[in-house]
Protein backbone atom coordinates (compact mmCIF):
# COMPACT_ATOMS: atom_id res chain seq x y z
CA UNK A 1 0.00 0.00 0.00
CA UNK A 2 2.80 2.39 0.88
CA UNK A 3 4.64 1.95 -2.36
CA UNK A 4 1.63 2.66 -4.60
CA UNK A 5 0.95 5.92 -2.82
CA UNK A 6 4.52 6.99 -3.20
CA UNK A 7 4.80 6.14 -6.89
CA UNK A 8 1.84 8.44 -7.65
CA UNK A 9 4.16 11.40 -7.34
CA UNK A 10 5.47 12.40 -10.77
CA UNK A 11 9.05 11.35 -11.37
CA UNK A 12 10.33 14.86 -12.05
CA UNK A 13 9.11 16.49 -8.86
CA UNK A 14 10.34 13.47 -6.94
CA UNK A 15 13.80 14.07 -8.39
CA UNK A 16 13.68 17.74 -7.48
CA UNK A 17 12.47 16.98 -3.96
CA UNK A 18 15.29 14.55 -3.54
CA UNK A 19 17.85 17.04 -4.79
CA UNK A 20 16.79 19.70 -2.32
CA UNK A 21 16.53 17.23 0.53
CA UNK A 22 20.05 16.08 -0.26
CA UNK A 23 21.26 19.63 -0.58
CA UNK A 24 19.84 20.46 2.84
CA UNK A 25 21.46 17.34 4.30
CA UNK A 26 24.82 18.21 2.80
CA UNK A 27 24.62 21.77 4.07
CA UNK A 28 23.81 20.50 7.55
CA UNK A 29 26.75 18.11 7.34
CA UNK A 30 29.17 20.85 6.33
CA UNK A 31 27.94 23.24 9.02
CA UNK A 32 28.22 20.51 11.61
CA UNK A 33 31.80 19.96 10.52
CA UNK A 34 32.72 23.59 11.11
CA UNK A 35 30.91 23.66 14.41
CA UNK A 36 32.55 20.52 15.77
CA UNK A 37 35.94 21.44 14.37
CA UNK A 38 36.20 24.31 16.81
CA UNK A 39 34.68 22.71 19.89
CA UNK A 40 36.91 20.71 22.26
CA UNK A 41 37.81 17.97 22.99
CA UNK A 42 40.11 17.59 19.99
CA UNK A 43 40.95 14.18 18.60
CA UNK A 44 44.66 14.79 18.16
CA UNK A 45 45.82 11.19 17.99
CA UNK A 46 43.25 10.10 15.43
CA UNK A 47 44.08 13.21 13.36
CA UNK A 48 47.77 12.31 13.28
CA UNK A 49 46.94 8.71 12.41
CA UNK A 50 44.78 9.86 9.51
CA UNK A 51 47.50 12.18 8.22
CA UNK A 52 49.90 9.28 8.30
CA UNK A 53 47.48 7.06 6.38
CA UNK A 54 46.82 9.68 3.74
CA UNK A 55 50.52 10.27 3.15
CA UNK A 56 51.27 6.58 3.23
CA UNK A 57 48.53 5.73 0.78
CA UNK A 58 49.32 8.29 -1.87
CA UNK A 59 53.06 8.99 -1.61
CA UNK A 60 54.31 6.33 -4.02
CA UNK A 61 51.77 7.07 -6.71
CA UNK A 62 52.30 10.80 -6.35
CA UNK A 63 56.06 10.46 -6.63
CA UNK A 64 55.73 8.45 -9.80
CA UNK A 65 53.08 10.63 -11.39
CA UNK A 66 54.76 13.88 -10.41
CA UNK A 67 58.11 12.82 -11.78
CA UNK A 68 56.67 11.61 -15.08
CA UNK A 69 54.50 14.72 -15.42
CA UNK A 70 57.53 16.98 -15.11
CA UNK A 71 59.66 14.88 -17.40
CA UNK A 72 57.10 14.35 -20.14
CA UNK A 73 55.86 17.92 -20.08
CA UNK A 74 59.43 19.11 -20.60
CA UNK A 75 59.98 16.71 -23.48
CA UNK A 76 56.71 17.72 -25.14
CA UNK A 77 57.34 21.45 -24.79
CA UNK A 78 60.88 21.41 -26.09
CA UNK A 79 60.16 21.18 -29.86
CA UNK A 80 57.79 24.16 -29.88
CA UNK A 81 60.27 26.32 -28.01
CA UNK A 82 63.17 25.06 -30.16
CA UNK A 83 61.42 26.42 -33.26
CA UNK A 84 62.00 29.92 -31.90
CA UNK A 85 65.40 29.01 -30.49
CA UNK A 86 63.98 29.62 -27.04
CA UNK A 87 64.77 26.39 -25.20
CA UNK A 88 66.33 28.48 -22.46
CA UNK A 89 62.80 29.44 -21.49
CA UNK A 90 61.96 25.85 -20.68
CA UNK A 91 62.60 26.09 -16.91
CA UNK A 92 60.33 29.07 -16.41
CA UNK A 93 57.63 27.65 -18.69
CA UNK A 94 57.65 24.36 -16.80
CA UNK A 95 57.66 25.96 -13.38
CA UNK A 96 54.69 28.16 -14.25
CA UNK A 97 52.75 25.18 -15.56
CA UNK A 98 53.67 22.94 -12.65
CA UNK A 99 53.16 25.37 -9.82
CA UNK A 100 50.08 27.12 -11.13
CA UNK A 101 48.19 24.18 -12.56
CA UNK A 102 49.74 20.74 -12.77
CA UNK A 103 50.88 20.08 -9.21
CA UNK A 104 47.59 21.05 -7.55
CA UNK A 105 45.46 19.18 -10.06
CA UNK A 106 47.56 16.03 -10.25
CA UNK A 107 47.74 15.85 -6.45
CA UNK A 108 44.04 16.48 -6.02
CA UNK A 109 43.01 13.89 -8.59
CA UNK A 110 45.28 11.23 -7.16
CA UNK A 111 44.12 11.95 -3.63
CA UNK A 112 40.50 11.88 -4.75
CA UNK A 113 41.10 8.45 -6.22
CA UNK A 114 43.16 6.94 -3.43
CA UNK A 115 42.12 8.76 -0.30
CA UNK A 116 38.53 9.61 -1.23
CA UNK A 117 37.65 6.06 -2.14
CA UNK A 118 39.22 4.59 0.96
CA UNK A 119 37.54 7.06 3.32
CA UNK A 120 34.21 6.49 1.58
CA UNK A 121 34.52 2.72 1.80
CA UNK A 122 35.80 2.71 5.37
CA UNK A 123 33.06 4.90 6.79
CA UNK A 124 30.39 3.15 4.73
CA UNK A 125 31.41 -0.22 6.06
CA UNK A 126 31.42 1.14 9.59
CA UNK A 127 27.96 2.51 8.93
CA UNK A 128 26.42 -0.68 7.55
CA UNK A 129 27.94 -2.86 10.27
CA UNK A 130 26.49 -0.45 12.86
CA UNK A 131 29.90 0.57 14.23
CA UNK A 132 28.93 4.23 13.93
CA UNK A 133 25.73 3.59 15.89
CA UNK A 134 27.79 1.66 18.41
CA UNK A 135 29.96 4.72 19.02
CA UNK A 136 26.90 6.89 19.33
CA UNK A 137 25.27 4.70 21.98
CA UNK A 138 28.43 4.45 24.01
CA UNK A 139 28.42 8.24 24.27
CA UNK A 140 31.29 8.75 21.82
CA UNK A 141 30.73 11.43 19.21
CA UNK A 142 31.35 9.55 15.95
CA UNK A 143 31.16 12.71 13.86
CA UNK A 144 34.03 14.26 15.71
CA UNK A 145 36.07 11.10 15.91
CA UNK A 146 35.58 9.95 12.32
CA UNK A 147 34.57 12.90 10.16
CA UNK A 148 36.31 15.93 11.64
CA UNK A 149 39.66 14.16 11.90
CA UNK A 150 39.54 12.84 8.34
CA UNK A 151 38.46 16.08 6.72
CA UNK A 152 41.09 18.05 8.63
CA UNK A 153 43.76 15.52 7.73
CA UNK A 154 42.83 15.94 4.06
CA UNK A 155 42.99 19.71 4.41
CA UNK A 156 46.49 19.49 5.82
CA UNK A 157 47.88 16.70 3.67
CA UNK A 158 46.68 17.66 0.20
CA UNK A 159 48.54 21.02 0.27
CA UNK A 160 51.65 19.31 1.67
CA UNK A 161 51.48 16.63 -0.97
CA UNK A 162 51.00 19.32 -3.60
CA UNK A 163 54.26 20.95 -2.55
CA UNK A 164 55.92 17.57 -2.77
CA UNK A 165 54.43 16.86 -6.21
CA UNK A 166 55.74 20.22 -7.41
CA UNK A 167 59.19 19.39 -6.14
CA UNK A 168 59.24 15.97 -7.75
CA UNK A 169 57.87 17.27 -11.05
CA UNK A 170 60.54 19.99 -11.14
CA UNK A 171 63.15 17.35 -10.41
CA UNK A 172 61.95 15.31 -13.38
CA UNK A 173 62.02 18.37 -15.54
CA UNK A 174 65.50 19.33 -14.35
CA UNK A 175 66.89 15.90 -15.16
CA UNK A 176 65.60 16.12 -18.71
CA UNK A 177 66.83 19.69 -19.21
CA UNK A 178 70.18 18.89 -17.64
CA UNK A 179 70.69 15.96 -20.00
CA UNK A 180 69.62 17.84 -23.12
CA UNK A 181 70.69 21.43 -22.60
CA UNK A 182 73.47 20.83 -20.05
CA UNK A 183 71.89 23.44 -17.77
CA UNK A 184 73.37 23.54 -14.28
CA UNK A 185 71.13 23.25 -11.24
CA UNK A 186 71.82 26.82 -10.14
CA UNK A 187 70.77 28.26 -13.49
CA UNK A 188 67.75 25.98 -13.68
CA UNK A 189 66.55 27.12 -10.28
CA UNK A 190 67.20 30.74 -11.08
CA UNK A 191 65.26 30.52 -14.36
CA UNK A 192 62.47 28.50 -12.84
CA UNK A 193 61.76 31.07 -10.16
CA UNK A 194 62.08 34.09 -12.40
CA UNK A 195 58.48 34.20 -13.52
CA UNK A 196 56.91 32.80 -10.35
CA UNK A 197 55.43 35.12 -7.79
CA UNK A 198 54.25 34.72 -4.26
CA UNK A 199 50.68 34.88 -5.55
CA UNK A 200 51.27 31.70 -7.56
CA UNK A 201 52.36 29.74 -4.52
CA UNK A 202 49.63 31.24 -2.43
CA UNK A 203 46.87 30.50 -4.92
CA UNK A 204 48.02 26.91 -5.35
CA UNK A 205 48.00 26.51 -1.63
CA UNK A 206 44.48 27.90 -1.33
CA UNK A 207 43.31 25.71 -4.18
CA UNK A 208 44.64 22.56 -2.59
CA UNK A 209 43.12 23.53 0.73
CA UNK A 210 39.75 23.60 -1.02
CA UNK A 211 40.48 20.35 -2.84
CA UNK A 212 41.45 18.64 0.39
CA UNK A 213 38.30 19.87 2.07
CA UNK A 214 36.22 18.71 -0.90
CA UNK A 215 37.74 15.23 -0.96
CA UNK A 216 37.35 14.83 2.80
CA UNK A 217 33.84 16.15 3.17
CA UNK A 218 32.45 14.41 0.07
CA UNK A 219 33.82 11.00 0.95
CA UNK A 220 32.88 11.30 4.61
CA UNK A 221 29.37 12.35 3.65
CA UNK A 222 29.00 9.44 1.26
CA UNK A 223 30.35 6.97 3.79
CA UNK A 224 28.36 8.36 6.70
CA UNK A 225 25.12 8.18 4.75
CA UNK A 226 25.70 4.82 3.09
CA UNK A 227 22.54 2.79 2.81
CA UNK A 228 22.29 -0.65 4.29
CA UNK A 229 24.07 -3.59 2.77
CA UNK A 230 27.49 -4.38 1.46
CA UNK A 231 26.83 -2.95 -1.97
CA UNK A 232 26.39 0.40 -0.25
CA UNK A 233 30.10 0.25 0.60
CA UNK A 234 31.25 -0.07 -3.01
CA UNK A 235 28.80 2.58 -4.08
CA UNK A 236 29.99 5.04 -1.45
CA UNK A 237 33.61 4.55 -2.52
CA UNK A 238 32.76 5.00 -6.16
CA UNK A 239 30.49 8.01 -5.74
CA UNK A 240 33.04 9.69 -3.45
CA UNK A 241 35.65 9.64 -6.20
CA UNK A 242 33.33 10.76 -8.99
CA UNK A 243 31.78 13.64 -7.06
CA UNK A 244 35.11 14.80 -5.60
CA UNK A 245 36.72 14.92 -9.04
CA UNK A 246 33.75 16.72 -10.53
CA UNK A 247 33.76 19.34 -7.77
CA UNK A 248 37.54 19.73 -8.01
CA UNK A 249 37.26 20.70 -11.68
CA UNK A 250 34.49 23.18 -10.96
CA UNK A 251 36.49 24.71 -8.11
CA UNK A 252 39.55 24.89 -10.36
CA UNK A 253 37.66 26.97 -12.89
CA UNK A 254 36.25 29.30 -10.25
CA UNK A 255 39.49 29.78 -8.34
CA UNK A 256 41.50 30.44 -11.50
CA UNK A 257 39.01 33.14 -12.49
CA UNK A 258 39.26 34.78 -9.10
CA UNK A 259 43.07 34.64 -9.04
CA UNK A 260 43.30 36.10 -12.52
CA UNK A 261 41.18 39.02 -11.40
CA UNK A 262 43.63 39.60 -8.55
CA UNK A 263 46.69 39.47 -10.80
CA UNK B 1 12.34 -22.48 31.85
CA UNK B 2 13.92 -19.55 33.55
CA UNK B 3 14.02 -19.87 37.31
CA UNK B 4 12.18 -17.25 39.33
CA UNK B 5 14.20 -14.03 39.64
CA UNK B 6 13.96 -12.67 43.16
CA UNK B 7 15.68 -9.33 42.62
CA UNK B 8 13.02 -7.58 40.56
CA UNK B 9 11.80 -4.30 42.06
CA UNK B 10 8.21 -4.19 40.85
CA UNK B 11 7.68 -0.75 42.30
CA UNK B 12 10.42 0.87 40.20
CA UNK B 13 10.20 1.24 36.42
CA UNK B 14 13.43 2.01 34.58
CA UNK B 15 11.88 2.29 31.12
CA UNK B 16 8.36 3.42 30.55
CA UNK B 17 6.99 3.80 27.03
CA UNK B 18 3.60 5.28 26.24
CA UNK B 19 1.73 5.41 22.90
CA UNK B 20 4.80 5.31 20.75
CA UNK B 21 4.36 5.88 17.00
CA UNK B 22 7.06 5.83 14.36
CA UNK B 23 6.78 5.80 10.56
CA UNK B 24 9.30 5.88 7.77
CA UNK B 25 7.44 7.62 4.96
CA UNK B 26 4.38 5.47 4.32
CA UNK B 27 5.80 2.59 6.30
CA UNK B 28 4.03 2.77 9.66
CA UNK B 29 6.36 0.73 11.81
CA UNK B 30 5.35 1.37 15.42
CA UNK B 31 1.67 2.01 16.05
CA UNK B 32 1.03 2.61 19.71
CA UNK B 33 3.62 0.77 21.76
CA UNK B 34 3.28 0.68 25.56
CA UNK B 35 5.88 -1.00 27.75
CA UNK B 36 7.18 -0.94 31.31
CA UNK B 37 10.52 -2.40 32.29
CA UNK B 38 11.07 -2.81 36.04
CA UNK B 39 14.40 -2.69 37.77
CA UNK B 40 16.11 -6.05 37.59
CA UNK B 41 13.65 -7.48 35.08
CA UNK B 42 14.37 -9.14 31.72
CA UNK B 43 11.69 -8.53 29.11
CA UNK B 44 11.80 -10.51 25.89
CA UNK B 45 10.27 -8.88 22.84
CA UNK B 46 9.13 -11.50 20.33
CA UNK B 47 7.97 -10.70 16.85
CA UNK B 48 8.44 -11.45 13.20
CA UNK B 49 11.05 -9.77 11.05
CA UNK B 50 10.23 -6.20 10.14
CA UNK B 51 7.71 -5.53 12.92
CA UNK B 52 9.89 -2.79 14.32
CA UNK B 53 11.68 -4.43 17.22
CA UNK B 54 15.04 -2.91 16.38
CA UNK B 55 13.39 0.45 15.77
CA UNK B 56 11.90 0.27 19.26
CA UNK B 57 15.22 -0.15 21.04
CA UNK B 58 16.87 2.39 18.77
CA UNK B 59 14.28 4.89 19.93
CA UNK B 60 15.00 4.01 23.57
CA UNK B 61 18.69 4.84 23.06
CA UNK B 62 17.88 7.95 20.99
CA UNK B 63 19.40 6.64 17.77
CA UNK B 64 16.00 7.36 16.23
CA UNK B 65 13.32 9.77 17.35
CA UNK B 66 9.62 8.88 17.57
CA UNK B 67 6.84 10.68 15.70
CA UNK B 68 4.72 10.78 18.85
CA UNK B 69 4.52 9.21 22.26
CA UNK B 70 6.87 9.33 25.21
CA UNK B 71 9.90 7.31 26.22
CA UNK B 72 10.95 7.69 29.80
CA UNK B 73 14.27 6.11 30.78
CA UNK B 74 15.46 6.26 34.39
CA UNK B 75 13.05 9.12 35.01
CA UNK B 76 14.14 11.19 32.02
CA UNK B 77 12.15 11.98 28.88
CA UNK B 78 14.61 10.90 26.20
CA UNK B 79 13.32 13.24 23.53
CA UNK B 80 13.75 16.40 25.56
CA UNK B 81 17.31 15.77 26.72
CA UNK B 82 20.09 18.19 25.95
CA UNK B 83 23.37 17.02 24.49
CA UNK B 84 25.18 16.47 27.80
CA UNK B 85 22.19 14.92 29.54
CA UNK B 86 21.80 12.47 26.67
CA UNK B 87 25.45 11.61 26.93
CA UNK B 88 25.10 10.82 30.62
CA UNK B 89 22.00 8.76 30.02
CA UNK B 90 23.66 6.76 27.27
CA UNK B 91 26.40 5.72 29.65
CA UNK B 92 23.71 3.96 31.66
CA UNK B 93 22.23 2.13 28.66
CA UNK B 94 24.14 -0.72 27.04
CA UNK B 95 23.15 -1.54 23.48
CA UNK B 96 24.22 -4.92 22.07
CA UNK B 97 24.05 -4.94 18.31
CA UNK B 98 22.90 -7.89 16.28
CA UNK B 99 26.37 -8.74 14.97
CA UNK B 100 28.44 -7.23 17.74
CA UNK B 101 29.38 -4.10 15.77
CA UNK B 102 32.99 -4.42 16.93
CA UNK B 103 35.38 -1.79 15.60
CA UNK B 104 37.29 -3.72 12.92
CA UNK B 105 40.39 -1.57 13.08
CA UNK B 106 41.01 -2.32 16.77
CA UNK B 107 41.92 -5.46 18.70
CA UNK B 108 39.47 -6.91 21.20
CA UNK B 109 41.32 -5.21 24.05
CA UNK B 110 41.24 -1.84 22.30
CA UNK B 111 37.55 -2.30 21.52
CA UNK B 112 36.91 -2.64 25.23
CA UNK B 113 39.29 0.16 26.20
CA UNK B 114 37.87 2.63 23.69
CA UNK B 115 34.61 3.54 25.49
CA UNK B 116 36.49 3.76 28.79
CA UNK B 117 39.21 6.04 27.42
CA UNK B 118 36.61 8.32 25.93
CA UNK B 119 34.16 8.50 28.76
CA UNK B 120 36.41 8.13 31.78
CA UNK B 121 39.59 9.89 30.75
CA UNK B 122 40.81 10.12 34.32
CA UNK B 123 40.73 6.40 34.96
CA UNK B 124 44.23 5.02 35.48
CA UNK B 125 45.62 2.45 33.08
CA UNK B 126 45.75 -0.14 35.83
CA UNK B 127 42.13 0.35 36.72
CA UNK B 128 41.16 0.19 33.06
CA UNK B 129 43.06 -3.03 32.49
CA UNK B 130 41.42 -4.55 35.54
CA UNK B 131 37.99 -3.67 34.27
CA UNK B 132 38.75 -5.10 30.86
CA UNK B 133 40.02 -8.31 32.44
CA UNK B 134 36.88 -8.62 34.60
CA UNK B 135 34.58 -8.16 31.65
CA UNK B 136 36.50 -10.55 29.42
CA UNK B 137 36.39 -13.11 32.18
CA UNK B 138 32.64 -12.58 32.57
CA UNK B 139 32.03 -13.25 28.85
CA UNK B 140 34.51 -16.13 28.97
CA UNK B 141 36.94 -14.88 26.35
CA UNK B 142 40.03 -13.73 28.26
CA UNK B 143 42.37 -15.36 25.74
CA UNK B 144 41.15 -13.22 22.81
CA UNK B 145 42.35 -9.86 24.14
CA UNK B 146 45.01 -9.42 21.46
CA UNK B 147 42.96 -10.75 18.53
CA UNK B 148 41.29 -8.71 15.81
CA UNK B 149 37.49 -8.95 15.43
CA UNK B 150 37.91 -10.54 12.00
CA UNK B 151 39.59 -13.53 13.63
CA UNK B 152 36.65 -14.26 15.93
CA UNK B 153 33.63 -16.47 15.29
CA UNK B 154 30.10 -15.03 15.18
CA UNK B 155 29.35 -16.19 18.71
CA UNK B 156 32.60 -14.80 20.06
CA UNK B 157 31.97 -11.44 18.42
CA UNK B 158 28.58 -11.30 20.05
CA UNK B 159 30.09 -12.05 23.44
CA UNK B 160 32.72 -9.36 23.01
CA UNK B 161 29.95 -7.02 21.88
CA UNK B 162 28.11 -7.75 25.12
CA UNK B 163 31.36 -7.28 27.03
CA UNK B 164 32.00 -3.94 25.40
CA UNK B 165 28.61 -2.65 26.55
CA UNK B 166 29.16 -4.05 30.05
CA UNK B 167 32.42 -2.22 30.42
CA UNK B 168 30.66 1.06 31.17
CA UNK B 169 28.60 -0.67 33.92
CA UNK B 170 25.19 0.15 32.44
CA UNK B 171 21.97 -0.20 34.42
CA UNK B 172 19.97 -1.18 31.36
CA UNK B 173 20.91 -3.64 28.64
CA UNK B 174 19.24 -3.72 25.24
CA UNK B 175 20.01 -6.89 23.27
CA UNK B 176 19.21 -6.98 19.57
CA UNK B 177 18.67 -10.61 18.61
CA UNK B 178 21.39 -12.23 20.68
CA UNK B 179 20.80 -15.77 19.31
CA UNK B 180 20.47 -14.85 15.62
CA UNK B 181 22.77 -16.85 13.39
CA UNK B 182 24.19 -19.08 16.13
CA UNK B 183 24.01 -22.85 16.61
CA UNK B 184 21.74 -24.07 19.44
CA UNK B 185 24.59 -24.81 21.83
CA UNK B 186 26.20 -21.41 21.40
CA UNK B 187 22.70 -19.94 21.82
CA UNK B 188 22.40 -21.64 25.17
CA UNK B 189 25.75 -20.15 26.17
CA UNK B 190 24.61 -16.68 25.19
CA UNK B 191 21.32 -17.16 27.06
CA UNK B 192 23.23 -18.16 30.17
CA UNK B 193 25.47 -15.17 29.72
CA UNK B 194 22.45 -12.86 29.55
CA UNK B 195 21.08 -14.32 32.78
CA UNK B 196 24.45 -14.08 34.43
CA UNK B 197 24.79 -10.45 33.41
CA UNK B 198 21.38 -9.77 34.90
CA UNK B 199 22.44 -11.32 38.21
CA UNK B 200 26.03 -10.19 38.45
CA UNK B 201 25.76 -6.63 37.10
CA UNK B 202 22.20 -6.06 38.37
CA UNK B 203 20.93 -4.94 34.99
CA UNK B 204 17.41 -4.62 33.65
CA UNK B 205 17.17 -5.81 30.05
CA UNK B 206 15.11 -5.80 26.92
CA UNK B 207 15.95 -8.79 24.76
CA UNK B 208 14.78 -8.90 21.19
CA UNK B 209 14.50 -12.25 19.52
CA UNK B 210 12.41 -14.57 17.43
CA UNK B 211 13.88 -17.58 19.11
CA UNK B 212 11.50 -19.17 21.62
CA UNK B 213 14.22 -21.12 23.40
CA UNK B 214 15.99 -17.84 24.11
CA UNK B 215 12.72 -16.23 25.18
CA UNK B 216 11.98 -19.08 27.52
CA UNK B 217 15.46 -19.15 29.02
CA UNK B 218 16.01 -15.44 29.56
CA UNK B 219 12.64 -13.71 29.89
CA UNK B 220 10.98 -12.86 33.17
CA UNK B 221 8.27 -11.48 30.96
CA UNK B 222 7.49 -11.98 27.27
CA UNK B 223 5.89 -9.34 25.09
CA UNK B 224 4.71 -10.31 21.62
CA UNK B 225 4.79 -7.68 18.94
CA UNK B 226 2.61 -7.73 15.86
CA UNK B 227 2.03 -5.00 13.35
CA UNK B 228 3.71 -2.34 15.43
CA UNK B 229 2.17 -2.95 18.84
CA UNK B 230 2.23 -5.47 21.65
CA UNK B 231 -0.62 -7.93 21.41
CA UNK B 232 0.24 -10.03 24.45
CA UNK B 233 2.36 -9.76 27.56
CA UNK B 234 3.04 -12.10 30.45
CA UNK B 235 5.27 -14.95 31.43
CA UNK B 236 5.97 -17.77 28.98
CA UNK B 237 2.97 -19.95 29.93
CA UNK B 238 0.53 -17.08 29.94
CA UNK B 239 1.58 -15.91 26.51
CA UNK B 240 1.58 -19.29 24.87
CA UNK B 241 -1.78 -20.37 26.24
CA UNK B 242 -3.21 -17.71 23.97
CA UNK B 243 -4.84 -18.72 20.73
CA UNK B 244 -3.73 -15.85 18.54
CA UNK B 245 -2.65 -17.11 15.15
CA UNK B 246 0.79 -15.49 15.25
CA UNK B 247 1.54 -16.85 18.69
CA UNK B 248 0.47 -20.37 17.69
CA UNK B 249 2.54 -20.19 14.51
CA UNK B 250 5.55 -19.03 16.44
CA UNK B 251 5.17 -21.81 18.91
CA UNK B 252 4.63 -24.54 16.33
CA UNK B 253 7.43 -23.36 14.12
CA UNK B 254 9.94 -23.27 16.94
CA UNK B 255 9.11 -26.57 18.54
CA UNK B 256 8.31 -28.71 15.51
CA UNK B 257 11.67 -27.95 14.00
N1 LIG C 1 16.50 4.04 9.34
C1 LIG C 1 15.43 3.54 8.68
N2 LIG C 1 14.95 4.18 7.60
C2 LIG C 1 13.87 3.69 6.96
N3 LIG C 1 13.21 2.58 7.28
C3 LIG C 1 13.64 1.90 8.36
C4 LIG C 1 14.77 2.34 9.11
N4 LIG C 1 14.98 1.47 10.11
C5 LIG C 1 14.02 0.53 9.98
N5 LIG C 1 13.21 0.78 8.95
C6 LIG C 1 12.05 -0.02 8.54
O1 LIG C 1 11.32 -0.32 9.69
C7 LIG C 1 10.79 -1.62 9.63
C8 LIG C 1 11.12 -2.37 10.89
O2 LIG C 1 12.54 -2.54 10.97
P1 LIG C 1 13.23 -3.25 12.20
O3 LIG C 1 14.67 -3.28 11.88
O4 LIG C 1 12.80 -2.62 13.46
O5 LIG C 1 12.63 -4.72 12.14
P2 LIG C 1 12.89 -5.89 13.17
O6 LIG C 1 11.61 -6.16 13.85
O7 LIG C 1 14.06 -5.57 14.01
O8 LIG C 1 13.23 -7.09 12.19
P3 LIG C 1 14.41 -8.16 12.28
O9 LIG C 1 13.89 -9.22 13.17
O10 LIG C 1 14.55 -8.62 10.89
O11 LIG C 1 15.62 -7.46 12.78
C9 LIG C 1 11.35 -2.25 8.37
O12 LIG C 1 10.33 -2.27 7.41
C10 LIG C 1 12.44 -1.33 7.93
O13 LIG C 1 12.48 -1.24 6.54
MG1 LIG D 1 16.15 -6.13 14.03
Fold and architecture overview:
The complex is a heterodimer of chains A (263) and B (257). Helices cover 87% and strands 0% of the residues of chain A. Chain A contains nine helices and no strands. Chain A has helices at 2-7, 11-37, 44-83, 90-128, 131-137, 142-181, 185-194, 198-224, 231-262. Chain A is elongated. The mean pLDDT of chain B is 86. Chain B is of the alpha/beta class and 257 residues long. Chain B contains nine helices and ten strands. Bound molecules: adenosine-5'-triphosphate and magnesium ion (MG).
Unreliable segments of chain B (pLDDT under 50, ≥5 consecutive)?
A: none
The total count of strands of chain B amounts to 10
Question: Fraction of residues of chain B in helices?
Answer: 25-40%
Whole-number radius of gyration of chain B? 18 Å
Which kinds of small molecule does this entry bind, naming each only once?
A: adenosine-5'-triphosphate, magnesium ion
Shape of chain A: elongated
Q: Pairing-aware structural class of the strands and helices of chain B?
A: alpha/beta
The number of strands of chain A is: 0
User: Mean of residue pLDDT of chain B?
Assistant: 86
Q: Using only CA atoms, what is the Rg of chain A?
A: 22 Å
- CATH architecture assignment name of chain B: 3-Layer(aba) Sandwich
- Largest beta-sheet characterization of chain A: none
Strand content of chain A: under 5%
| Number of helices in the DSSP assignment of chain A | 9
The helix tally of chain B amounts to: 9
Protein name (chain A): Phospholipid/cholesterol/gamma-HCH transport system permease protein
Pfam family, one (chain A): MlaE
Keywords (chain A): Membrane, Transmembrane, Transmembrane helix
InterPro entries (chain A): Permease_MalE (IPR030802)
Amino acid sequence: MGSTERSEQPVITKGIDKFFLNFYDILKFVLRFFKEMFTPPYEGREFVRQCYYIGNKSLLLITLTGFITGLVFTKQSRPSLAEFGATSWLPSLISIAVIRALAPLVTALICAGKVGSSIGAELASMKVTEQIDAMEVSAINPFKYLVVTRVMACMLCVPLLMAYTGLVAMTGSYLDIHLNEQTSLAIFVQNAFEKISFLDFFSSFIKTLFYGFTIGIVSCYQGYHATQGTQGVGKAANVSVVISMFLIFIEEIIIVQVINMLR
Amino acid sequence: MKPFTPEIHWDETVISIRDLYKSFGQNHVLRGVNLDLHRGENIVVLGRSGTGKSVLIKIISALLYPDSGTVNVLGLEVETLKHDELRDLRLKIGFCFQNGALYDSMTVGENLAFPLRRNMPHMSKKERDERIATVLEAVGLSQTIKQMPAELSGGQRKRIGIGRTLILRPEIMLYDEPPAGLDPITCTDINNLINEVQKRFKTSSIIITHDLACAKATGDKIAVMKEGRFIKEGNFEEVFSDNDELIREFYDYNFIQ
